[in-house]
Every structure is written in structure tokens, then in C-alpha cells.
């Protein structure tokens, strides 16, 4: 995807309604985005979905505010009532009481008083809106961003259509402090059982002509607007196919519509007792991490966690803000493990250790074998994020109690749908208690339309990983050999390579993500501005995607990142499926542009 085909603020991929990235083509455009400069922000048609609220979500939120709330209020949208109430609790805990007291929730569901199509009823779409004043927005946004609990853009688009058709209504009449008369569609301006106890006597027990008509209309609505993408008869098979693909038990070119799926015992994870029910799907990767932490807490009690390695920003925030906090080790080094072992020997105890394998953006690989040994000896859980490594390349389940992943990235590849996963290790010490925690508490909030897209995108997952592995090694070699380059970060060339090799699958490569630093900032800026790739947030795309990652992820804490060995001018490259010769030329030309700044 050449950068010449993209404009500032355009979605990546272009003309894609539910794109996961946005084009920020220059170094200054990234700075402008972080500083909220109008010349950048006003041109953005979309953004990364947990940082930029998608326009379809805003449209539904605005509709809800217009109909059911006061002017000036805002709404944060969640797929279920329980998720909305977790957000409410977070606002109440982290806001001034005067702000928190003005927060309310409206739950929306299909109107049960009229006939709707069986297809739509089986889908059972719901949305819950947390309504608040503008003073509460920063805290509400924190919850939404950190947890990944919010609605997906496709769910919002679908539910907005239902609301405009009068098919999605409040489950109860909105109450104070909304302070506004009920303003739903006219067909719902009727007495409720609370207003008129004789209301039921006015309705025949037989379906009315109007009810039959509305049922027909709801079916037409579903089929005309979404039927091409949302075949409910295939959704459950798509879920099963995704889970088996994640477990390494399904050939990647097998479609979800086949009559039978292969047995789970034949899986690349190496666990004969791994079942499909041990794999869980989530609306995004961060929601998988959030729920892994919730499950650990429910299973083991309220204890501090360990964040091991330079963190993805929201993983650290989850561990800090939900529960009693965490101990942070930013280098994922043997020295860090020495210190942790000393604390454990002295009697400190922890809930679980959370780490990435490899880490982002330095691609450092922690010593999982030693971590597992400490966990067994001192009784704490291990949660490993394998997003960057991917199970085609590495097997980390052998060392973990829970393995999480962002399916949004290389598993999908197409950069047009969100998703996350978690695997419970059936041989793990906490398997039964974690299983019980999720069986009792976990809601399935992965929107069916997103499931269908994810299944389709992931069918060639393994073959894409193999090609991207080869391309990334070629780019690593080009960058490593150049005199302007200070360092390349990649599992194959990092000092922690032995830890990677311990987990590398037979035939596995070193992944598609690498980072590069230059001897001075001017060279980094010139290289980034010149490189003819797509440029924006996210990773694991089928096309090469370049980003000044530290600027985007840690702009307000660059000194803190530098103190942990992360260069503020680091450039991260997610290598794609392009022809290797084409990529070599692209990176060589960008290096030549950097040379002219010398």
C-alpha cells in the first residue's frame, strides 16, 4: 500500500468503513495529532478504535442524547448492562462526587411489545449507554480505552439502524438525573404498565396486523442492510473455526461452513487435553487482557500483579487502576527476575505476572522458563500476550496459565475488524478456578458480524505469517547494515534471542515486527518522512505499516520511556506481504533520503 495513494487522515485501508488505522504521513503529522493541532485532527476520518471514537459510535451516541438526555450531556456506549455498570463504578471511584452523581445508564434492547423477525430476535442486539456531563468524559474515556469494553463500530452501526427504525428502545423508562421527557419514536409514546394498570386489557393476545407488518419490516431491515455480511447460521461455526484456528487445530484454508471440524487433540499447541471451550473470544485484544485480570482476581483474590517488561500502555493501566496495583519491571531482564525472586523469597506474594512475548516495541523476550519456575514455587499466575510472536512462530502456552492475543493484528491482517482471544492452559495450576470464574462471570460480547469478518480474514493466517517472517528478516538485514542506523530491535538479533529460541516452533520464524533507531533525530525524521509505506498506528497488517511508535504511544511520558531504554525517536515497522525486492527498494530509498540529512 504505497503512501502516495494515501492522504493525511485517510483510513488505512482507504475507503474502508471499519478501518483500524489512519494515515499520518510525516513526523510532524504525528506530533500534530498528539498535540491536537487542527491541521491534523480536522482531517482525520478515523483512528485506532480504542483511542479514536468511531463515527458510527458517535452517531448512535448522538441519537441517544438527542432522544433521551439533556443538551450538553454525552454517552459512552457498551454492549451489555454489566459492562456499562462497570464503567459507572469506575467513574464514581475516580471522579468528584458532584460529577459522579450526575451519571446515569439507559439499557436498550429490542422492543418486546411488537413482533420482530426470528432472525433479529435470535441476534438479540443490545446497547447500554452511560450518560454523563462533559466533566466526566476524561474518566469515562479512560475506562473505555483501557478495558476495551465498548461497543464495536459494526454493532453501533447496526443498532443505530434499529433505533432509527423504532426497533431498539429503552428496556425501562429513563429516570432522573436525565431530566428530560421520554422522546423515543412515536410508536413508543404509550402508557406503560406503571402508568396505566389496565394497559394490558387493550391488547389482544393474537398478533395484530401491525405486529406482523413490523416483523416483516424488521426482517427486511436485517437482510437488506446487513444480510450480505451477517449470516447468523454461520456465526457459531465461524466462532468454532476461529477458536480451533487459534488452538492450532484447524487447517487455515478450511472454511467455517464445512460439515465437520478436525479433533482438537491434533493441535500445534502440543496439549492433547486442550478443548475448544478453553479458547475464549473477545471484542478486542485489550478486552482479553482486562478479562484475564478479572478472572485471576475472581479466582485468586485481590492481590497486586506484576507487569514484566516495557508495557503496552493500557496493560499497565489495567493492572494499576483495577485492583490494588502492580509492581513494574520495565526491562524484562534477568536482573529484574533476580529482584523479583528476592521479593518473593522475603515473603511478598502476587496475583499474576503479565508480559508480552516478544515485547513492544523493543521485541525483548522475557525468560519464560524461569518465570514459570518462580510461579510454581511462589504461587502466582502467568499471563502471556503472544500477539507479536503469534502461535505459528512460538509456543508460549507451555509456560502460561492464560495466553492472550489481539486478533486485530496479524491473525486478521486486513485491518478492518477488531478481536481478541484468550486460551486457558488445561494443564495449569489454576485451570479449574479460572474456568469457573469465566463460566460464572464472562459475557460473550463479540458482535456476530465482527466474528464473520474475523473468520474470513484469518483463513490464510499461517501462510501470511510465513511470508511476513521472510520479509521482516530481509528488512532487518538492510537496516542493520546501514551506517546511519544505531540499532535494530528484532528477536533474531536481540540479546534475548535464546529466550525466543526456547519457544520457537519447528519451522517458525521471528515475526513481522521490528524497530529501528538512528544516531540522530534528523535522520530518523528524514527516513520516516521519505519511506513509501502506509504510516499509522496498529501492526500485523498485510501491508507494511510504519510508525514513530514512541511518539504515538508515550508522547506525554517520553522521558519516562527513555529512562527504560526506549528511544523517543524509535521507528516501528510492521512488515507486510509485499514482494521482497519491492520492500528492499522502498527501505533503501528511505535510507538514501536520510543520508542527505547527514
Automatic annotation (TrEMBL):
EC number: 2.5.1.48
Coiled coil location: none
GO terms (BP aspect): methionine biosynthetic process; transsulfuration
Keywords linked to the UniProt accession: Amino-acid biosynthesis, Methionine biosynthesis, Pyridoxal phosphate, Transferase
Region entry Disordered, spans: 170-214
Catalytic activity: O-succinyl-L-homoserine + L-cysteine = L,L-cystathionine + succinate + H(+)
Cofactor(s), names only, from the UniProt record: pyridoxal 5'-phosphate
Molecular function (Gene Ontology), one example: pyridoxal phosphate binding
Pathway(s) annotated for this protein in UniProt: Amino-acid biosynthesis; L-methionine biosynthesis via de novo pathway; L-cystathionine from O-succinyl-L-homoserine: step 1/1
SUPFAM superfamilies: PLP-dependent transferases (SSF53383)
Biased composition (Low complexity): 198-212
Alphabetized Pfam families for the sequence: Cys_Met_Meta_PP
Highest rank taxon of the organism: Eukaryota
UniProt KW Signal keyword: no
Recorded family membership: Belongs to the trans-sulfuration enzymes family. MET7 subfamily.
Function recorded in the entry: Catalyzes the formation of L-cystathionine from O-succinyl-L-homoserine (OSHS) and L-cysteine, via a gamma-replacement reaction. In the absence of thiol, catalyzes gamma-elimination to form 2-oxobutanoate, succinate and ammonia.
Name assigned to this protein: cystathionine gamma-synthase
Species the sequence originates in: Colletotrichum sojae
Taxonomic lineage of the native organism: Eukaryota, Fungi, Dikarya, Ascomycota, Pezizomycotina
